[in-house]
Amino acid sequence: MIGNDVIDLVQARQESNWRRKGFLEKIFTLGEREVIQSAADTELYVWLFWSMKEAAYKIYNRETGLRAFMPRRLECIIERRGNENYQGRVVCEGTVYTTQTIITGEMIHTIALPVKHADKQVIAVEAPVYKDASGLPFIHNNKGEIIDVSKSHHGRFTRVVALDKLYNQ
Amino acid sequence: MNRTSLIEKLQTIVRPYSNNQEAVGTLTEDTDFIRDLGINSANLVDIVLDIEEQFGITVDNADMEQMLTVKASLDIIENKLSGNK
Q1: In what order do the strands lie in the sheet with A85-92?
Q2: How many DSSP H helices and E strands does chain A contain?
Q3: CB-count burial class (<10 Å; 0-12, 13-18, 19+) for B33
């Protein structure tokens, strides 16, 4: 299981006004809003947390088959900050997802894994991506086996990721 | 407000966020905001806020979780308008 989310910051600014009254309260818990509002770059944290929620939600949706618009139920925590990269967790009703986010220029890319797979290697995938009957993406690995991938597209950017172990057999 | 008027009002609300104006024009109760109208999930928040403003209601988290389709939205709006806060 793997999830990812890409955000084109230029497009995000055009599509959403996060300063709109009531906007942050619908998406973020009180704890998250406190972190966002005390961050040096508030806007960046809004979209960082949003991409973490989306990436984790993709795993949740795939695992449970449930579909809901539930951003506040996916609570984000930043554990470590590097230069343009953030390591964190998203907790959803006791289920923990680990996240890695890379921010380069105008792109935010978050990859989420179930915490039990935190040590697994993730790779970027170039192969053609297909969708199964539920609309979930998959590819064929070098053995012709079907493996789950996560694909995200926003604005100028598309990223497809898979677990290395499954892709390179 | 009857269901048809509600649908028209909802159409006006979702229109600016959709990349498929034809689908907005022909939407039905089964229309899905993300899958059919191409609305991105961040804009779902705007739709909820617009609905709250325009109908004078409050949509709580539990309600918002279900608001992925026209039908779910109409049910919630009707429920709130009939006084079930």
Answers
A1: A3-8, A107-114, A95-104, A85-92, A75-81
A2: 5, 11
A3: buried
* pTM of the shown model: 0.94
pLDDT of residue A169: 64
Residue type, A129: V
Task: Say if B61 is an interface residue toward chain A (CB within 8 Å).
Answer: yes
Burial of A12 (0-12, 13-18, 19+ CB in 10 A): buried
> Which candidate from B35, B49, B68 shows the least CB-CB separation from A26?
B49
- In total, chain B counts a number of residues equal to 85
Query: For B14-37, how does the pLDDT look when each residue is reduced to its tens digit (9 = 90+)?
Result: 999 999 999 999 999 999 999 999
CA–CA separation, A115 and A121 (whole Å): 13
Of A16, A68, A73, the CB nearest to B42: A16
State the nearest Cα–Cα gap between A63 and chain B, in angstroms: 18
Whose tokens are 């609309």? That residue is: A135
ipTM of the complex: 0.92
